[in-house]
Amino acid sequence: MKHTDILDFSPDFKQAVAFFKAQKNYAVSPMRRLQGPGGFSFLAKDETSRMGLGAFKALGAPYAVARLVGEAWFAKTGEILTPPRFLDADVRSMANTQTFVCASAGNHGLGVAAGAQWVSAKSRIHLARTVPASFAERLCALGAEVVWSGDVYDESVAAAIDDAAQTGATLLADGTWPGYTEIPKWVMEGYCVIAEELRASFEASGDWPSHVYLQAGVGGLAAAMSHMIRLNWTVQPELIVVEPEAAACLKASHDAGRPARSDGPDSNMGRLDCKEPSIVAWRVLERCNVIYQTLSETDGSAAAAAMTRLGIATTPSGAAGFGALCTQLPDITTGKDFLPLVIISEGPA
To answer: What is the Cα–Cα distance from 153 to 146, expressed in whole angstroms?
Structure first.
């Protein structure tokens, strides 16, 4: 996915869908119709069991790893790999010489580690000290080398960039910045699978959502979903991008008219606690006619507790979209056509 315009995002989503449909552990994640505060119905796309990793990011980094290994194999042999070929000894032997490195607030690192393990490559994940130890344990179980780097996410990102430069490992970030944009577009391309699953369901049922709430850290999921919704959904909903008050970098960028930081205290929405946006995600969101909303720490925690009581155990990050919906309710006209959709992006850590 190489473009003259480094900020262009035009994913080959059909390839991503075909790739995952060929995986034995792939299944369409559930969509549940639930009753919210005040008795209104809403839809919840449940990513908490996605492909054994418990988060939507199982669709991102593993797909990017496969694309990178596939490119390396094609450069060496001229063969385009099919999904079954990744399991063959000759491909795995070549992949075993590759190391993928990233920083992570949790789930992206799990995706990188799982993707590397699947193709027999190596992974090294830099974690800030704000990341729960449980994530490090899960990373190690997937064969990753864990490096504790810095006190906050930005410092672990800098450490991962330096690691790749010093060791020759492949940097596989989910954020983008000047000089680094192409690989994360494959991560976002994988996320497009969620939007395609939803579109197929809505085309079959005819029950299209009126509003879609998309939580955002650096913005990869929100941008991929917004792009696909505007591209090919028959009925166009209102799109609301939700960020922690403590890390509203996409809203700050929108207000500034350019990518901008949004510094603040640590957020309990840890997987969304990103102070600097992906420049590709920002550009995509700017053309998708989205609304930005911030969420307080208290409302994030309350949303996680409420969603767990409704039967989907999650975290403040995973329930952020639902939290934004609940805080918006007094200001929304909830007529017969009101049917909001939220993404429950992760299960408990």
So the answer is: 14
